[in-house]
Amino acid sequence: MPLEDEFQRYFHAVGDGQDRCYLCRRSPKEVKAFFGFDEDGIPLNATTHGLEDVVLEKMDIMSYRGLRPICAVCQLNVDAISALGEEDVFEQVISKMRHGREDLWPRVPGS
Asked: What is the DSSP string of 12-61?
C-alpha cells in the first residue's frame, strides 16, 4: 500500500480523517501559523518583525514516525516540561484528568 494511502487510512481511523496533531488537534496550517508562517512557508508579517529572506524550508512540522502524529507546538511543550524537571507533575495532571476531572474546574457559585 502506498505511504499516502496508509496515512489517509490512519488519519481516518484516528478521528475526523484529517491530518491533525493527536494531542491538540491542530492542523499543519495552524501549526505553521502559530510559528508565524503561512501555509506555503513564507513568514507572516515579515516586515513588521524585521525578517528578511526567511522561509520555512522544511515543512515537517508534524511528526509521523511515532505512534501518533504530534505537532511541533506540543513537542515544544513537552520539551519545556522536561527541561523544568516536571514530568512527575505532568503525570499527576494526566491522572487527575482521568480520575478527578471535576476537581480541575472552578466551582460554579450556587452549585
From this structure: HHHSSSS---TTT---HHHHHHHTTB-TTSPBTTTTTTT--S--------
Does this model's pTM top 0.85? My answer is no
Residues 6+ apart with CB under 8 A from 59: 28, 41
Confirm if 13 and 3 have CB atoms less than 8 A apart. Answer: no
- Other C-beta atoms closer than 10 Å to the C-beta of 44 total 13
Phi, psi of 43 (to 5 degrees): -65, 140
Say which residue the cell 476531572 belongs to: 101
pLDDT tens digits, one per residue of 4-21:
667 666 666 655 556 889
Task: Classify the phi-psi angles of 26: left when phi > 0, otherwise alpha if psi is within -120 to 50, otherwise beta.
Answer: beta
For residue range 72-111, list pLDDT tens digits in order: 999 999 999 999 999 999 999 999 999 998 888 888 887 6
Nearest 10 degrees: Cα torsion 74, 20, 96, 102: 130
